[in-house]
Amino acid sequence: MRVNHFLAPPRFTRFFCYPDSFGHYFDDPTHKENREAGQLDSYNWHIVRGGRGYLEMGGEIVELQAGSGFLYGPGVKQCYYADTEEPWDIRWVHFNGAGIKELLQGKGESEAWTFSWKNAERLDVLWGKLLTCGVPSLQGGEARLSALLYEMLAELALNAGDTLGAPSHGQRSELIEAAEWIRTHSEQPLTLEQMANQAGCSISHFSRQFHSLIGKTPIEFLTECRIVHAKALLVSTELSVKNVADQVGFSSSAYFIQRFRRSEKITPEQFRRLRRG
């Protein structure tokens, strides 16, 4: 069974992203796509909900099952197909827009990006909403469709992991719990060893996987949490900069000012005056 929706270009041409087609294929053992490089000038994104299928990538055949997916950037050669005995249940969307490359950090630009969305189950809910939208109405429908697609892409960028070298589903949960623990204890003099212990892994493994999942090192994340806390104290209290630095966990006010200025481009006192009007 194949469900297809095709859309005209939006009247407002500066949406961050907008689909030109989307659909849902299932119980179709004949499904196969083979596109030469340059043939499709939009992003092509699929999630696999059941069954199995295959993707040709780098001269190898990659098997994809429920909880996985793939993304091609514009112009990339594509070859993928359903298993004939147990055809996949997939949802797909073709789309374009400015800023997508930065949002997805270049994934899919030179070859297919395969990923796991087992820690991003909300994607399937959002995809269901997309399918029920169908052809948008002219009265606000295009804006809602663009916003929905952006939410889907943000969910993918934040929570989907590479199928190779990324944290497993269980490990992702442990890393997220460790990140929350760091946030709630950021005023304490935390060490990298203490942070790694929260995730139950070695310092080197923790640092590598934390950066892969969160997008920054544990120390960078800790500093960010302290600066966020400092902002609230600067605006809502009369504490001196030195006392703010002490309360949020910085070892000295000079280092606090240095890191705050690097992050916000202004000093803590300038931030206080600016936000208090």
UniProtKB/TrEMBL annotation:
<dbReference type="InterPro" id="IPR020449">
    <property type="entry name" value="Tscrpt_reg_AraC-type_HTH"/>
</dbReference>
<dbReference type="InterPro" id="IPR018060">
    <property type="entry name" value="HTH_AraC"/>
</dbReference>
<dbReference type="GO" id="GO:0043565">
    <property type="term" value="F:sequence-specific DNA binding"/>
</dbReference>
<dbReference type="Pfam" id="PF12833">
    <property type="entry name" value="HTH_18"/>
</dbReference>
<dbReference type="InterPro" id="IPR037923">
    <property type="entry name" value="HTH-like"/>
</dbReference>
<keyword id="KW-0805">Transcription regulation</keyword>
<protein>
    <submittedName>
        <fullName>AraC-type DNA-binding protein</fullName>
    </submittedName>
</protein>
<dbReference type="InterPro" id="IPR003313">
    <property type="entry name" value="AraC-bd"/>
</dbReference>
<feature type="domain" description="HTH araC/xylS-type">
    <location>
        <begin position="176"/>
        <end position="274"/>
    </location>
</feature>
<dbReference type="Pfam" id="PF02311">
    <property type="entry name" value="AraC_binding"/>
</dbReference>
<dbReference type="InterPro" id="IPR009057">
    <property type="entry name" value="Homeodomain-like_sf"/>
</dbReference>
<dbReference type="InterPro" id="IPR018062">
    <property type="entry name" value="HTH_AraC-typ_CS"/>
</dbReference>
<keyword id="KW-0238">DNA-binding</keyword>
<keyword id="KW-0804">Transcription</keyword>
<dbReference type="GO" id="GO:0003700">
    <property type="term" value="F:DNA-binding transcription factor activity"/>
</dbReference>
